[in-house]
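Recap from last week: sequence in, structure out.
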Amino acid sequence: MAGVAALLAALIAVGGAAAWLLLRPGEPGAREAAEPFVAAWSRGDDRGAARLTDDPRLAAEDLAANRRGLDGATVRLRLLDVTEREDSARARVEVAWQVPGIGRWSYRSAMSLRRVDDRWAIAWSPKIVHPSLDEIRRLGTTRDPARRGNVLDRNGVAIVRPRTVYRVGLARDKVRDVGASVASLAAVVDVDVRPFTRAVRGAGPKQFVEAITLREPDYRRVEDQLDGVPGALAVRAEAPLAETRSFARALLGTVGPATAEQLERLAGERGPGDEVGQSGLQARYERRLGGTAGRSIVIRVEGVPTETLLERRGRAGRPLRTTLDAGVQRAAESALGGRAGEAALVAVQPSTGDVLAVANRPVDSAYDRALEGRYPPGSTFKVVTTAALLRDGLSPDEVVDCPQTIAVGGRSFKNFEGNAQGPVPFAQDFAQSCNTAFVSLTERLPADALGQAARDFGLGESLRLGMPAAEAEVPPGRDLVARAAAMIGQDRILASPLAMAGVPATVAAGRWRAPRLLAGDPRRAGARLDATERDTLRELMRSVVTEGTGTALASVPGSVGGKSGTAEYGGGDPPPTHAWFIAYRDDVAIAVLVENGRSGGAVAAPIAARFFAACDAEGACG
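Predicted structure tokens:
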């Protein structure tokens, strides 16, 4: 026994650590304790990592809180070295976070280890997460949303830009009787009472519950009335808006809080609460207009950022320049007015193909029927049919009978606008939009003649607009009856208002030019019309206005040419009809569509007349 005691004394003299290891042969060292902590934290097991510390509850809270503060970031750690000294040790680690929307962020940290019940444990401190943390300082992120780019018209005028709005709602701590306050607010502004009531009842004690966002002029009209609503609050803000609620709304689109689906599609470029394009150009060009938010990793004390640890600068949104003309667009909106039913008006510039105005009704609909809608064009297509007939040798002076009805292949065709004129020159048949006269000429044309002529007016050509746009279809008639219906723009012929605006534009300019909506896009043009054909079509379209179905435009200054259309669709006896009018004057051409509008001459033509009058008032059509 004396020999063993002597040996122990000698070992202790050599060094405490060595003696300890010999006394506990095979016991893990500090590195073996640090490695499981590093591995657990790296795989996202914050609780598992916390259990390896000397204060598992506090460590779990700190690890989870800081990961939450970094928006659920993932982390990878690399153990650099471990230094042991008797019952204590120190480990250095490299910490590398992958933070959503920010990317990689790395730094070095350190942790102390100590023996607890004959094992090594991590001596917990928030500084392990980051050297600048303590009991009240937490990691967090901030977002500095980018300023959204404006939408510009052809002249560089911002038609969508930040404008003052007021977020109107109820301040929960100022509301004593929820039902009474909601009812009082609903009497002043448009509020969906039941869901808003639930939202107010479920709000936090000091929460502001928004009911509606109003443009400044709308807010000023109800400002005094809101003073009488218990708990009402109006918060001034800015939003990217056009000059009026109706101004090219379906085309320009709207901006609103990002949905979960939009956040996923934008892949980290936007965050919860960010405003993104919801429809129209705003949605189509979100990345361009929305820019990139600035992002920072910060230290927060009680939720307030106090120090910036990493900054990623954002990029402001870029403007989007369109071919729209603000004055022409105002004229289009004025022409459609407060119409509640489905309607559209498109204006283009014949010399360039530039789209000058796109107006749709109803205002609240995001569906851009002016560009995307496909309808039978009815008698507006007679401009194309006439071009085909002129190429076949028809003279405007040739007498073509216009009876009340005519039968082709067992189907009876009748006139919608104008009366049966009897045997009159074709020019008069055109002015009065005589269906039976056109149908009687069916067999004069080859089966593919209408399709070939239509392409010279852009119908059937591909459109590269930068926005969804329906392409027109002019398929060949499958039999004699179909060919007869095609002569008057029926059968399977379909076109959008944008496509039909290209028809009068082609007559005005003498060639079709592809519609262009974005100022930087290239221009495309079709073949020139024969000069005689062009001049004849101009004379015929002018006669529609002076003595035919378009006399609603007779008082419009200048030389206006037009063509009405009443297009059947669906079933029924008689079937329902859409009303059309296409027209041009100088370097502006338009198409007007009114769904279920009965008669083009009676319903759509007056809208066209109002457009030119409003355009002149704006000084935009000269």
